[in-house]
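Annotated sample (chain length 346).
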Amino acid sequence: EDVADLIEPIQDDYSKEILQAITYSNNHQGKRSYYGVPVHQSIILIFYWQKLLASVGLKPSDIPQNWDDFWQFWQQAQVKLKEQNLDIYSLGFPLAKDKRADDTHYLFEQILAANNINLLSDRGELEIDRPKIRQGIIKCLNWYAQLYQQGYIPPNAVNWSNIDNNRNLLNRLVLMTPNATLSIPATVRQDADTYYNQLGILGFPRQPNGESMRYILSIRQAVIFKNSLHKSLAKNFIRYFIQPQVTIDYLKATNCRGQPVRKSVWLDPFWQDTKDPYIETVTKILTQGQTRLSYEVKYPAYSQVLAENVWGQALTQVTAEQVKPEQAAKKAIARIKDIFAEWDQQ
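Output written by the structure step:
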């Protein structure tokens, strides 16, 4: 259902990225309009145990911000932990090929972005056959494979569901894990010592080329189905729900797993709290424009790539199945090309 009547009166309160994310083409009517209502947004960040680092003489200020040294820091911390007979893996990277394992492809997409591997051109053309892009994909797959084979990623990460990286971190089975919401600190929010002193949050390090990271933006939306029996009731509810104070109360009730989508909500003192490291970190990134939209916003065919977890399949192949990265990349690229060809025929 077209929801322009809900969005247009307040569209200046949304960023251009968010408005772009909720704009869709209606091929039956030959028009583009707002068909989604943004609810909250999120980016992938890194969560880790400050207390475990301290147990081996390390502190947050020791963590490097250049790409290679950053990842080597966690590997070296694992070695020190094992010297203390602590069987803890340094990197909680999800690797599952299950179609429901969103965290797997979300992290791999961020790793591709860090390495400036742009799979699509601004005109929507697939770039994956270009030698530079193909080699970049192979390089990223090989990076994962080496970390896995060297024992820095848990072997069972190939079977993780979306909650298992959270679970492994909270159970102190891994030292750090990337995660796409603030669900991990939300779990311990009521325990002030754990929240502020034991757990920690980080943005990604600088990209390999030295530039600041651009984070892939995930925007959750509410939609009203065209054939709904209660469209008027649904619109009234959404109209109520997107009121700034109602949204603020909702986001706080979820322990801030997701973040505001309206500029006016960001101005609430809660999101300006510099004493809360989690809120401060995510607010800084999301309000300073260090983001880009996921590919499927501009190129709907890419939604099928994510739905099939093509990258998760490739990651499982190069880790648990020990397939060469070149072969896994070739298979993934072929499937992505097929998906785009199928969409072009629709």
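Annotation: The chain has a mean pLDDT of 95.
Annotation: The beta strands are 23-26, 31-34, 37-42, 45-49, 89-91, 174-179, 199-202, 215-222, 291-293.
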